[in-house]
Amino acid sequence: MLGYVLYREADAPRPPFCRVGGVRFRAVYVARGAGPRARLSAAAAARVLRREGVRTAVFPEDYVNYQSFAARGVAAPALPPLYRATAAAVALRCLAQQGVAPRQAAVALLAPSPTPELARAAEALSSQVRHLILPLPGGEALARELRFRHGVSPRLVAPGEGFCADAALCFDRFDAPAGAVPLYDPALAVRYDAAEPNGLLAALWSAGALDAGRLSVRSVCLPAPPD
Predict the structure, then answer these.
(1) Residues pairing with 26 in the sheet
(2) Same domain for 111 and 191?
(3) Which ranges constitute the DSSP H helices of 99-157?
(4) How confident is the model at residue 227, as a pLDDT?
(5) Whole-angstrom Cα distance, residue 142 to residue 90?
(6) Structural domains counted in the chain
(7) Residue 61: strand pairing partners
(8) 167-170, strands of its sheet edge to edge
(9) Between the N and C ends of the chain, which has fewer C-beta atoms within 10 Å?
C-alpha cells in the first residue's frame, strides 16, 4: 500500500485511508512547519506507516520534514520511472523549448542497451520527428521493427560515437553529449500539464491507475551542472 502525508487541519476529520485517482492510500497527518512540533508529528506519522509496511508515500509539495520519514524507511515515489515512461512527451517539449519543429528534428534515445521505455518512446516519436538515433549494441532489432512498421531508418550509434541531435534523452547513464536529458536523474525537473504534483502522478502511475501516455509536458529543466 502507498501512504499519503497530509497536513493537520483544525477540527477536520482525519480518516485513516483516502482514495485519490482510484487508488487507496494509508493517510497520516502532520503539523506544518519545521519546528519541534512538526518534527515530532512527522516521526509519529512515519512510525505508523513503517508499522503497517508502507515504504512509499506522497508528501505535500512544500513539506520539509522528509528526513523523519527517510530515517524510518519511508520515501517519496521515485520520479525517474515516470520521466522514462513519458520520454516521448519530454522529447517533444525539449524541441518546443528550442523552437525546433519535430518534422525537422533529430532525436536521440540513448541507453547502454534498449529498454521497453526506450522502445515505446521510439515508437511514439517515429511518426513525428525527422530522424531517430538509437543505441548500439542492442538497437538493431528495434531499428528493423521501426523500419518495417513505419518506414523509418533510425541511425545506430555506439558509446563514444559522435552524432548531432536536436534533443538527446538518456534512459540510463550513457556517454552522451552535453545538454542531454538525464531521465535517470531525480534532479531533472519535468513539469506536466496536470493539476496533480509529480509525486502523486508517480504514485498513481506506479499503481497502474494513470496512463503515462496521456500526460503532456509543460517544461523540462536540466539539473544544474556539478561544481
Answers:
(1) 3, 17
(2) yes
(3) 116-125, 140-150
(4) 65
(5) 20
(6) 2
(7) none
(8) 155-157, 131-135, 106-110, 167-170, 181-182
(9) C
Q: Confirm if 76 and 59 have CB atoms less than 8 A apart.
A: yes
Q: Tell me, what DSSP letter sits at residue 207?
A: T
Both 95 and 165 in a single domain?
yes
Count of CB atoms situated within 10 Å of the CB of 71: 12
Q: Are residues 118 and 184 in the same domain?
A: yes
| Same domain as 158, residue 99 | yes
Among candidates 55, 19, 18, 59, which has minimal Cα distance to 42? 59
Q: Over the stretch 159-211, which tens digit does the pLDDT of each residue have? A: 888 899 999 999 998 777 888 999 999 999 999 999 999 999 999 999 999 99
Q: Are residues 85 and 60 in the same domain?
A: no
Residues 36, 38, 39, 41, CA torsion sign: positive
Please count the residues of the chain: 227
pLDDT at residue 57, as a whole number: 98
Classify residue 76: in a domain, yes or no.
no
pTM of the complete model beyond 0.90: yes
- Domain range for 18 is 2-70
Query: Do residues 175 and 52 touch, judged by C-beta distance below 8 A?
Result: no
Cα(33)–Cα(16) distance, rounded to whole angstroms? 22
Peptide bond into 36 cis (omega under 30): no
- Give the orientation angle of helix 116-125 with respect to helix 140-150, to 10 degrees: 30
